[in-house]
Write a structure and sequence with these properties.
6-stranded parallel β-sheet, 343 residues, 5-stranded antiparallel β-sheet, binds L-homoserine, 13 helices, Dihydrodipicolinate Reductase, domain 2, 2 domains, binds NADP nicotinamide-adenine-dinucleotide phosphate
């Protein structure tokens, strides 16, 4: 992308649902951008697109052609990836919040990401920075392990289960709050957290990680009962849906998602309901916590807009680990050690 300094930056938006509509409203505060067109399924549906509503279309090419930056906020895997391939061929910078596509269609996305052409901060922990620090400041250490709460819907559901609310009732409220995926089984069954942790693992230590390596290690919250969650809480622990990247004991990494019961003084335990957190432990830096909101319209659109601003400045997006980073220690002590442990 090369832009004359005074030329408005043309942004094509694929999808103006929960996140896309919030992005368009935020973009209307930035006169340097023009949203050329926005792809939707139903242009007749009433929606609040702020002060400068874009033209709505059902033809993806109208949103892609001539755009300097194409932002994908549709969801799904194959179709959004194919549309972004079209945008990449036409020379656009790419921005997405779509962790499902990044996780499951990694072989297609990887070359674009390696070339620095993609912004996807919003795909993991939404507006709370995760990809930036993991591929920036934390690259000075070698990673021991990483544990995270990456799904806001499940974090909210578990809080409600603790209060004795049934899973289905709590899920309806998470949907109303804009946290849940269009298909909420992606949240409840652990797939959304798995998509995110697959992206995190590839960006930090395991660029070759295949989605099929993660799939057998994914468990969600569907089987959790208010009784179990409350019993754990009464015993001084909190149940969390934990996404992890850990040494596998054989020189590689194990990546998955499962409910874990966490000691109440640990950072993943004392998170407020619905929030996300990531605990990274590296040999030089020790333990680092990142926490904040991880879902919702403006929370997510905030990070998408930051990627759009970065692309418009011509700055490269985050790069994955260049090659597999071997674990420093095949069986590190459990997360919780805060002292740097450089050998
Ligand atoms: P959403 O509310 O379901 O919006 C999806 C948008 O895509 C809608 O505008 C929809 O059109 C459009 N769309 C879907 N299928 C289409 C088709 N076949 N043809 C044309 N348009 C189509 O989803 P969302 O919550 O905004 O999420 C968007 C992306 O952001 C997903 O990848 C999600 O995983 C990711 N994300 C979401 C959050 C969050 O908190 N919601 C956070 C981080 C990342 P209509 O409006 O006409 O139906
Ligand atoms: N459905 C996702 C969640 C949205 O609940 O965390 C943010 O990626």
């Amino acid at each position: 992308m090369s832009l004359a300094p005074e030329a408005p930056v043309r942004v094509g938006v694929l999808g103006v649902g929960t996140v896309g509509a919030a992005l368009v409203r935020l973009l209307s505060r930035h006169p340097e951008f023009i949203v050329t067109a926005a792809l939707v399924r139903d242009p007749g549906r009433a929606r609040d697109l702020g002060a400068r509503p874009p033209r709505l279309t059902t033809d993806p090419d109208e949103a892609i052609d001539g755009a300097d930056i194409v932002v994908e906020l549709l969801g799904g895997v194959e179709w959004p990836t194919a549309l972004m391939a079209r945008a990449a061929e036409r020379g656009a910078r790419l921005v997405t919040a779509n962790k499902a596509a990044l996780a499951e269609a990694w072989p297609t996305w990887r070359p674009w990401i390696e070339a620095g052409r993609v912004g996807f901060e919003a795909a993991v922990m939404a507006g709370t920075p995760a990809i930036g620090p993991l591929t920036g400041a934390l690259r000075g250490s070698r990673m021991h392990a990483l544990e995270a709460v990456l799904n806001g819907t499940c974090a909210y559901l578990i809080g409600e289960l603790e209060r004795g609310v049934a899973l289905e009732t709590a899920l309806a409220e998470a949907q109303r709050l804009g946290y849940a995926e269009a298909d909420p089984s992606l949240d409840v069954d652990g797939w959304d957290a798995a998509h995110k942790v697959a992206v995190v693992a590839r960006m930090t230590v395991a660029p070759e990680l295949a989605w099929s390596d993660v799939v057998p290690r994914v468990r969600g919250v569907r089987g959790l009962t208010p009784d179990w969650v409350r019993t754990e809480r009464a015993a001084g622990r909190r149940v969390r849906l934990v996404a992890y990247v850990e040494p596998d004991g054989a020189g590689g990494w194990r990546v998955g998602v499962e409910p874990r019961s966490i000691a109440a003084e640990r950072p993943l335990a004392f998170l407020a309901d619905g929030r996300n957190a990531l605990v990274y432990r590296g040999d030089a830096v020790g333990e680092v916590w990142i926490a904040g909101p991880g879902a919702g319209a403006y929370v997510t659109a905030s990070a998408v807009l930051a990627d759009v601003l970065q692309a418009a400045r011509g700055e490269p997006g985050p790069r994955p680990a260049r090659a597999v980073v071997s674990p420093v220690d095949a069986s590190p002590t459990p997360l919780g050690v805060v002292t740097p442990s450089l050998a």
